[in-house]
Structures are given as structure tokens and as C-alpha cells.
Amino acid sequence: MRPGGEPVTLGGMSSVAVRRVDGEFRRRLTAAFSWQTDRGVSSSYADVTGWWRDPDLIRELGPALVGLYAEAPTVVLGPVSRGALVGALTAASLGVGFVEVRKDDGQAIDSDRWVKRTTGPDYQDRHLVFGFRRELIKAGDRVLMVDDWADTGATARVVRELVDACGAHWIGAACIVDALTDTRLRHELPLRALLDVRAL
């Protein structure tokens, strides 16, 4: 079954089909995920590689993520590295363009204009510089950011600042997993997700 069954179409040029992500799709996402750890080590890491191995999941991820918002983007942004993968899948499902938000990268020549911002501390307490070429986002664009995981919200916050600096319209952030430590960000950004980390 497609992740949402029959879509409900909202009126207007800038709307998309809002899909309800069904329980079966969420169950399959959860089943393809695992926590990995070594014996005698208390910490573990999230292994999402099972998502990419399942051709049905990767085909359905884009429509499911964009379906979290009613407003249709004209462009999708995805931060490197896995956000770029998920973002490209989402953009392809919509038939719109994609912009990779680069990390610690920038202009190669003086005439290559970039917009860049530094994040607050991420989940590893790092401050990272994200950016993209200025010409890739236009003032009239409606922008959706897509990523695989949201933890501190630092990446989504800085990407929103980049979009605002371009004079474009920020729709929100769509993630596969919501592990936000600051729950206010769900409303402030806004940020919506397919899974809550507690389900994993």
C-alpha cells in the first residue's frame, strides 16, 4: 500500500495532496531500522541503512515526507549527507528542483556567491558552517527542508536562516525521525516527522 492511501487534495495552486502516513508504512520503517552497539559498550548508534536497501521504502519516502505539509514547495533543500539523499528522493517525487546544503564548504572563486551560516551546537556539540550558492534559491521560492533525523534542531534552524536570507518562503522541515531535545521547535520551525524516536 502507498504511504497514505488516497490523498486528500487541498485547493489552490500551492497545495499538494496531504497523505496520511499509514501504520503499515511506519511499521516497515521501524522494522528496517536498528540500534548498533559493541559488547561492553554502553553507547549505540542509529543504523538507518536498512531504509536505503528496501526499494519500496525509498520509493515511498519522498511522497510521505512532502505529505507532512499541505503547501507545495518549488524547491527542496537537504543538508549533507543523508539529508541530501532523502531530499533528492523527495524533490524527484514532486518533480521540483533540489539544492544540497553543503557543510564546511564554500565559494571556489570570488565571483561564486554563497550564503552561509554557523549552527548552534549539534548532537556532537559541534558548530558547523552550512551554505549553498546564492543563485540556487530565488526570492519567490517556497522551500521545504528534508532530513533523515532531527536531534537538537540546529541544522534546521540554520537552514531556515539561509532561506530567510534569500528572501524565500520557508515551509518547514520534514524528517524521518523526530528526536528533538527541545520540543518547542516542532512548532517554531515548524518540524514534522514520520516517526518519533521513542518508537525505535
TrEMBL record:
Coiled coil: none annotated. Pfam families: Pribosyltran. Keywords: Glycosyltransferase, Purine salvage, Transferase. The keyword Coiled coil does not apply. Gene3D superfamilies: 3.40.50.2020. It comes from the Bacteria. InterPro entries: PRTase-like (IPR029057), PRTase_dom (IPR000836), Pur/Pyrimidine_PRTase (IPR050118). GO terms for molecular function: glycosyltransferase activity. Residues 68-186 form the Phosphoribosyltransferase domain. CDD domains: PRTases_typeI. PANTHER family: HYPOXANTHINE/GUANINE PHOSPHORIBOSYLTRANSFERASE, XANTHINE PHOSPHORIBOSYLTRANSFERASE. This is Phosphoribosyltransferase family protein. It comes from Kribbella alba. The lineage of its organism: Bacteria, Bacillati, Actinomycetota, Actinomycetes, Propionibacteriales.
